[in-house]
Design goal:
The chain is an alpha/beta fold. The chain has a five-stranded mixed sheet with strand order 4-3-5-7-6. A hairpin with a 2-residue loop joins strand 1 and strand 2. The longest helix is centred in the N-terminal third of the chain and has 24 residues. The radius of gyration is 25 Å and the shape is globular. The chain starts with a helix and ends with a strand.
Length: 487
């Protein structure tokens, strides 16, 4: 019976169709149910809403003023703005571009693996990735951040580079450069994070001479640089000059260079002294690869033992599968090492390497089970546990801020919503989703508002102001802020 089912699944595109069904479920089910994340997701949403309001597709705005914090190129904000136009101002629309990007990323991973291995390896790699939070999770596939789109373009870039290098697809370098350029328009210089790994792989199989002698490489480099140059010229022509900036920079380009490159490597973005996190790679696996990380460590030990024992290269006898393992190791090690040397890191930075960590794990599982059959039972338990946990996770939603949801009708019906020192980015996006007429003011401004207007101030400011208590009605609040209306 099992043999018949396996045979059926291996026919045609059955496994690919099954993968698409599962990936759609994990990517889109209850996509808008979770509350907004306070930081990057909410800021992207505000950027996109204000872009639609002010009609400026180049400069990011936050709270009605130039956003001097977010200096990344605007491709993801454009897509979120388009999604808002189609689906309206809501959480699903904010996250739809990321969910779509991560869904197609699984198809790319599947197709990339098929260049070197069989359908079973491709399918099991994708399934293991679906069972953890590294791709379909916070700050990546199920939130309105830039990383899912970055991963999508980087995977396409890797796919076409490998098609050129190992399968003589002559146009592969050009397509690879285009997708790396789109990755730059998504997250700036983070698009270059795959280059050291691809370089190591090229050196490992002694193809570096062929690559550097091929004029297509230099044309491809020109294609990528044209993306970078186009953004620089756009900023030079249409970019704003900052009168004040959180990083002390004069414009977006200077912020992009200083913030995303120099400060992240040397000191961190908040100007506080930080040290290198040399355990960053292991911390990432522990959080975003669930208990698969322990299987990964067993596989690494087995790989090291295999190479030490079979000095004539007999380990991983299939040449194409060996190439797949080597390119995966090169990408994982280079990205992991690079991020361990950066002082400002976040747990999602390693996400572009996760497909290749999963691939190493699956290939290693196949090698181990050929010698130790019982290992498949251990892996099966891991799979059932992580897959079940993931299903429970996406069906469990957090809670929205009660004081905002309970005041939704009041906020929607107000002529204007005025905020004072509202430092919570998720609160601002909630307000703008309910009522686009939001004015963001600082505490130095006098608190004045008219009939049919709503004001949000800190609870401390309300308690300390006799005028506010005397002339306003408290609608709702939490431990930080209160919502008021005129008496």
């Amino acid at each position: 019976m099992i043999t018949k089912v396996t045979g059926y699944l291996m026919k045609g595109n059955t496994l690919l169709i099954l993968l698409c069904v599962i990936a759609v479920y994990f990517s889109f089910w209850k996509l808008g149910a979770d509350p907004l994340n306070e930081w990057d997701e909410s800021r992207r949403g505000v950027n996109a809403m204000e872009m639609l309001q002010n009609g400026d597709p180049v400069n990011m705005y936050y709270g009605g003023k130039p956003d001097t914090w977010n200096a990344k190129p605007p491709l993801m904000v454009w897509l979120i703005a388009l999604s808002f136009k189609v689906f309206g101002y809501n959480e699903f629309a904010l996250r739809f571009p990321s969910a779509l990007a991560i869904f197609f990323s699984f198809i790319i991973i599947y197709r990339l693996i098929l260049l070197y291995a069989d359908k079973a390896v491709a399918f099991l790699t994708c399934i293991s990735l679906l069972s953890v939070n590294g791709l379909v999770g916070n700050h990546v596939g199920r939130t309105g951040d830039v990383d899912a789109l970055l991963i999508f373009f980087l995977l396409l870039s890797i796919l076409f580079f490998l098609k050129y290098l190992d399968f003589n697809y002559t146009k592969g370098l050009y397509y690879s450069a285009v997708f790396m350029g789109l990755a730059f328009y998504t997250k700036g210089f983070a698009s270059l994070i795959i280059l050291p790994g691809l370089f190591l792989y090229t050196v490992a199989f002694r193809k570096i001479g062929k690559l550097f002698k091929d004029k297509r490489l230099w044309i491809a480099a020109g294609i990528f640089l044209s993306f970078v140059t186009s953004w620089v010229l756009i900023l030079y022509k249409y970019g704003l000059t900052f009168t004040e900036s959180v990083f002390g920079s004069r414009n977006t380009l200077e912020t992009l260079w200083k913030y995303d490159i120099i400060q992240r490597f040397t000191e961190g973005v908040d100007h506080q002294e930080k040290t290198h996190n040399y355990l960053y790679f292991f911390n990432y696996l522990d959080i975003n690869f669930n208990i698969w990380n322990y299987v990964f460590y067993v596989v690494l030990a087995f790989i090291i033992y295999g190479f030490a024992r079979h000095r004539q290269g007999q380990f991983l006898k299939n040449d194409y599968q060996r190439k797949l393992m080597v390119v995966s190791l090169a990408l994982v090690l280079s990205i992991g090492l690079l991020l361990s040397l950066v002082k400002e890191t976040h747990i999602w930075y390693m996400a572009p390497a996760l497909p290749f960590i999963a691939l190493i794990t699956v290939i290693g599982i196949r090698e181990i089970t050929e010698q130790y059959r019982y290992f498949i039972f251990i892996v099966s338990v891991v799979f059932v546990f992580t897959f079940t946990r993931k299903i429970i996770d996406i069906n469990t939603s957090g809670s929205y801020p009660d004081f905002l949801t309970s005041s939704e009708k009041v906020i929607k019906s107000a002529d204007r919503v005025i905020t004072y020192n509202l430092y919570r980015q998720d609160y601002l996006l909630y307000l703008k989703m309910h009522n686009p007429q939001v004015q963001v003011l600082k505490g130095s401004d006098s608190i004045k508002f008219a009939e049919k207007e709503v004001v949000i101030v800190s609870r401390d400011a309300y308690i300390q102001s006799d005028s506010l208590k005397a002339n306003t009605r408290l609608i709702s609040g939490d431990e930080q802020f209160v919502i008021l209306m005129p008496e």
